[in-house]
């Protein structure tokens, strides 16, 4: 194929490289130019255009894409009609995508003109989901390259392993420390995991955490026709001699592998009881969030054997929880059913400003119904029951601190408060306890941010679902306060001057979840007029008593 800018007279029969628009005529790229096209372009004063001229042995893009896609597609997938040099491949049923990674790499190295992109190895898909696409980069490709690529994939470089409607037995062991409702919720979560495959739970057995009793239960469910057994141990497996692996062997089974390089999911046991796969589930399998157990379960439900080599090959990409930008599917907050502690969220109340727009007095000592704004903010924070509340002071620190008397808050003084908001933010973060998971940053002049609003923001924080920054909105516009995962604390500590962290929200949009809370998210009291509108009153003398007690409202 020749790709060049040629005089118009030499372009008949060539393929237009770029779209053209002239009065009365629009030609899209890829158009095969006719004599009528050439005449119209000449009349419009066009002297030369960029075209692709095919050699006799070249194959046009759509035909090339179709031939290669048909060559690589194996059982369980369908190739749709090619267009614009692209042939998409779709799943015929729900299941797991199986790809020949090495073969696909070799195909993509035949020539830069030929590309094949797929979903990830063993990706779960539903019927009708696009699983791969062949794209031809230029308008045509040499016929011998197409033949090589088509033949290269004749064994099928990708196929679908459809789910099987398996009969699944669940066995849960009990200890006194494990609540029955935790087992109930574990069963509910597992039922949801099995639903896409059409698998059914035929047994829900709950027994003491003893190897002998568990071995007998394994033999029982095997005799009753189970095709997959999942064991949820009351305590984590820490050794091949532990209760679950020992019971599997006592029942006549064999442990094929213990442990895998996926986190969460390390402590998984893969075993077989005759021909029946047995999965000793790690503790994280009680949670609905994706973990290593899902990877193994999906393959098993699709009838794919999971070997020791398969498990030990999961390390690259196996870190699931500590990647800030991981694009996990967003979902509504789920109840905690894993037995793990809820995230520890601290609240920072920034109260160091000089109130320059208020015209002199410290607005944080202004009162509503006799209570200073800073105390209202701190009290609302405490009523939301966070892990801790820290107030950052600066301007008139003694009087602001006195207004907080009797409240269970930590007070941190920002001696650099005159340099702007960023210094208070950094002082507050630096003072937080090390075990904190996230911090909600409040401004002390927003009295309508209620405990209920604060609780809603904290509840929306959901790291497994990718919700690492929680932003309140009013009619779709972002406001305050904002909750930040500790993964962003280092970025917050780099901010300079009298600015907040708004730019970090924009640059980390994939980790942001918005919560509509109404006007409270944008109502701050910067002026005497704004304060008066909410019934507030300036304290002109600033004679705040050494102790301040306000009856809880």
Automatic annotation (TrEMBL):
SUPFAM superfamilies: Molybdenum cofactor biosynthesis proteins, Nucleotide-diphospho-sugar transferases. Residues 348-507 form the MobA-like NTP transferase domain. It comes from the Bacteria. Pfam families: NTP_transf_3. Keywords: Magnesium, Nucleotidyltransferase, Transferase. GO terms for molecular function: nucleotidyltransferase activity. This is Molybdopterin molybdochelatase /molybdenum cofactor cytidylyltransferase. It comes from Breoghania corrubedonensis.
